[in-house]
Amino acid sequence: MAARKTRQIAAATAFLGPPSLWIGALFILPMATMALLSFWRVVDYNIVADWTLANYERLARPLYLGIFWRTIKIALLVTVICALVGYPVAYFLARKTKRFQLILLVLVILPLWTSYLVRTYAWMLILGTNGAVNQALQGLGLTDTPVSWLLYSDFAVTLALVHIYVPFFILPLYAVLEKLDPRLLEAAKDLGGGRWRTFLHVTLPLSLPGVATGCLFVFIPSMGAFVTPELLGGARSIMIGSVVAQQFGVAYDYPLGSAMSLTILAIILVAATLFLRAGRPAGTAP
Amino acid sequence: MTERLDLNVLLPAGMTRRQTMKALAATLGASALPGSALAQADRTLNYFTWSSWGEKPFADLAKAKVNIEFRPTFFSSSDEMVAKLRGGGTKLYDMVVPAQHFVALSVRAGLFEPLDPAKMTYRKDLFTEFQNDPNWTVDGKLYGVPFVWGANAMAFNRGVTGDLDSMSALFDKKWKGRIALRDDAEDTLCMGALMLGIKDPTNMDEKALQEVKKLLISQKPLLRAYWKNVADLQTMLGSGEVVVAWSFLNVIEPLKKAGIDAGWVWPKEGALGWSEAVSAVKGTKKLALVEEFANFTLSPEHGEMMARYNNYAPASKVSVDRLEPKLVADLGIDPKTINRLTFKGNLQNRARWNDIWNEVKAA
Lengths: 286, 363
What we know:
The complex is a heterodimer.
Chain A: H1 2-37, E1 41-43, E2 46-48, H2 54-59, H3 62-96, H4 101-109, H5 116-127, H6 132-139, H7 154-178, H8 182-190, H9 195-224, H10 227-232, H11 240-249, H12 254-278
Antiparallel strand pairs in A: 1-2
Helix pairs in contact in A: 1-12, 3-7, 3-9, 7-9, 8-9, 9-12, 11-12
Chain B: H1 2-10, H2 17-32, E1 44-49, H3 56-66, E2 69-74, H4 78-86, E3 95-96, H5 103-108, E4 112-113, H6 128-131, E5 137-138, E6 141-142, E7 148-157, H7 158-161, E8 179-182, H8 185-195, H9 206-219, E9 223-227, H10 230-238, E10 244-247, H11 252-257, E11 262-265, E12 271-276, E13 279-281, H12 287-296, H13 300-310, E14 313-314, H14 317-321, H15 325-331, E15 341-343, H16 350-362
Parallel strand pairs in B: 1-2, 1-3, 8-9, 8-10, 12-15
Antiparallel strand pairs in B: 3-13, 4-13, 5-6, 7-10, 7-11, 7-12, 7-14
Helix pairs in contact in B: 3-13, 8-9, 8-16, 9-16
């Protein structure tokens, strides 16, 4: 018995050791460092371990609360649009096509092979004053002067974020829809459910876990986005990610940056709980 | 137990495992560190600098004249320079190009190594105001000798705007949606201060800061975007998104080469002056080589190449004497004009300026 127990412990260590080490060194340790830093302060480019709540007080001012709120709104908008655009795509991929399934899946994944930065810059060419969209609009005689709000605006930031993150919505949802038990759909049909009723009462509720996961995968990176708003955003498009980057890369205010990062993390945890609770399939225990 | 024995067979007699590990670590460490025994012959320097000073003609001249190769990494603001050096960059770079008002604070933050004045043999060639510029000496020690000076001022697309001479163009409804300002707390708040006629912008009190904030917020409806990287501004001016901007001088030449009639002016309200020099990064193992490079940037050839290539003003009188008088006049690089510039000082409360700047951006 004792030998068996030792073997079990050895096996557990072998399997759990490396991942625990990984998570400990690369996740928990940095997080703990940030948590500490967020209660310290900077004096003349030196971080001083004075315990203070000043960083959080600074965050609670209308300025930063406003930027947090703006960021949450944009991230939510991006998430909703991704859901509206991504759901039909995932549904079609999983349930409506067999012949083109593989090629369509590759098309969904393909943009991920190009750098995030390249895709962001590409939008400049498309949306600019002399960009493709404005050329087309003017060519079609729909407008005389170039439409200026296409680029350097919240519109541009939202559009680019949707484009960048929509695959992260489609893929988990596709995985759920693909595994949907066809017998349930047949049963619904047998019971006289039309297409819409079957969708609303069977497919949609069963796919909610996929929707929730997809929403999270879009919401989390959108909350932290900073390259896209910086390159495509206009005079007002400041998002909290840029302010965090500013604290670490420009202002050397690690404590304030840490306090901001932890606040973003808290917002994301709340959002994750809400999304996952909403996405729990009907009838399952909490 | 057998495994352990096997391992011991491989070790030199009398060496414990701990000693072996130490030796291994030392070997790995030595090969990873720049500037160990190999440094004698190694004439490369890791160079943390503005993009202007890392371009090919600069690298070519350094190689040809002093046989030094540099590996450049770029920053786009002085704040970024200090933040990155302070955040671990001192281990990565041998030399850096600060602006004059960041020298004392960098020295106090322990980021720079003093230079030997005797090695700066070209210093005597400089215009007198740069030979002994007090900004570059801290506690009696020399941290750099400026090789270049200039201004942050106004760039415009002359083809669209015609000639401009006033900063009011940045606040003119005529160019609504075609104006860009720099995304930099210090530079842009100082620019606003010049517009309001505030004399010593970097020493603004809270009241003055609030006035500048109000001015810049009122300007926002006219603004296309804030630029962070000068390459992005170049794209905006090049694509016609923007026709007038608060800018660096180095956007102009590439735009002209692309066929755009780009103009550059120190507005009558003033412009923000700076001087820059090569400083040694704290702890560099190649201090002598950095000094050699710093001295090379003061040489007649370096200044001449710089003026001809990207139109920056050499601090060296001998360099300017090599240029045709018309070019000197066209480029406005005669130091007699220098008193038209407002040189920035060190900010007393940088965090406050950053907050105010974020308030402008978020408004």
